[in-house]
Amino acid sequence: FPDKERIIALRDVIDFKDIPVLASAIDAGCSYLITGDGHFMTPRVKRASSPLKVVTPSDFVEKILPKILVP
Question: What is the pTM for the complete model shown?
Answer without folding.
Answer: 0.86
